[in-house]
Amino acid sequence: MPDNCSIGNGLYMCENPKDAGDASEWSFNIFVRLDDPANKAAVERAFKKEVMRQTGYTDEKKFEKEYGQSFRLTPVDDIYFSGVGLGDKGNRNLVNVLTVASVFILFIALLNLLNFTLSEVPMRIRSINTRRVMGASQSSLRLQMIMENVGFAFIGLLMAFLIVMGFQRSETCMNLVSGDISFGANAMLATVMAVAALAVGALSAVVPAWYSTSFTPAMVLKGSFGLSPRGRKLRMAIMGVQFCVAFVLAIYIGVMASQSNYIFNSDYGFAKNEVLFTGLTAEACQKKTAIRAELQKLPYVESVGYAQDAIGVGDQYMGWFRGNGDKSMNMQVMLCDPGYLRTMGLKIEEGRDFKESDSQTGAYILNRTMMDKYKWLHVGDSIGSRSEWGDHNYLIVGVCNNFRMKSVRNDNSILSVAFLVLDPLAMNSMGDRCYNLFVRVAEGHDKIEAKRGIEKVLNRLDASYGDYKMKFFDDALQRTYVDEFRFISQVKLFAIICIIITIIGVFSLTMFETEYRRKEIGIRKVMGSSVGAVVRLFAVRYSVPLVVSFVIAAPLGYWLSRQWLQSFAEHTPIYWWLFPLSFVGVSAVVVLTVVAQSWRVATENPVESIKTE
Description:
There is one protein chain. This protein has 613 residues and is α+β, with helices and mostly antiparallel strands. Helix content is 56%, strand content 8%. It contains 25 helices and 10 strands. Strand 3 (319-322) and strand 4 form a beta hairpin. It starts with 16 loop residues before the first helix and ends with a helix. The mean pLDDT is 83.
């Protein structure tokens, strides 16, 4: 399989048919080869009907409401975008946004190279038309200008290849991508981009070449030419497109930053900031009592617990379906020890927390959502009948608060969760699955120091491994959302490039106008205008395009941001203040660029400007 395929390369073995046929076993994915893709819907419905038959349902609406599972067949090519597997976190909207952003950058580069070439026209138009008088043809002059820009594009292309080669050798830069970006693996793409770059160079010179050679040479040599209203509108329209892109990206980045803050700082329902965790070896699992005793001697350790998994940092946990008919239940199950809930800071809202004696009898603590969803459950009662639950028919001893069991890609408010402490008989049957250690650091203590101390104890007690590294929950969250944060970094890079190119475009347009209006500026200063008044003359000219561009960009930025947020079941709202903040930020950069360029002309000696003109 390809390296980035959802179906991994490894050792494949035939599973025990008994396990595969167990209705309570949800660890398997089913692969079906259809005779005709058009039969997909019929096969999905057949799956649904069979599950209804096996679970005792006859009413389809009741089954959908209570069973809460959907049945779909996903083409292998689409698995990554389906969310079926733990690593299948792809989002087609994000891929499309990145593709559009890449095309926009190329388009903006075309517009800015066009603007920059146009800005040189006032300084070159006399020499060009002098050569026309000396016998040069219009076509030869135009071809020469076009080839100049193609030459610049070729130099830029070589620099781009060198930058990409440096990118490939940088570990920090490679964290921005998740695939192979070598030229050999992407020969077709590299060829297309090289041709596109040269085409951008050629196209950017077409309008300036025609414009600068379209005047009557005699009029140009006399200085009788100026800015045409149509040309000024064209250049301002080009600049408006760049302003729109800059505003859209600024809004988009603001929403992404808000979502990043929400992921890390929103309430998870448990003490994620105080907890360290790590996996244990088989030998360490035999020494849990000793490990707990040694760790609790440390002054910075408040509580120690063991569990099957870390909550909040994944999308797949053990799921059970139990019961049938009106008493069927669908839930996420977390095997743990009696100290786990205290360690994680989960609050008991009804009943009691686990006690050490529960390790001899077995016990459940359910979250509030599960109690509200299945009304027949009560604290103090058994969770099911002996015939349906077998060895796992324990008492419900308490109810804990709702919390974020899975990542924010899922709606955690609807998840039914059962914490389960097994009795010795079930432990022998299932094996000890609580192979993750969780330690809560006491308030006011240095977590870095606590991390080192805990690792020292573990390495001393488990000589078979000797290289334990405790993990912070924040680090685990970072790994959970690695694809999202990579995408955010990519868009930030796009935004920086777009804003830099926009600044170049503004600089070019301002240079174009100041060169054409040098005499006017000189006369204004002779007549008493201050440097500030001249600078304001140019700065105010950009106010209307900025406002119009923002009005166009705001709905587009909102739509793109909303599309991205749809990949999260839990997400931040799109705050209204992000829009004026984006407007002020981009506008400030544009105005400062205009001021810097116009200041140079405004501070020149007006006598020199008038004399040279």
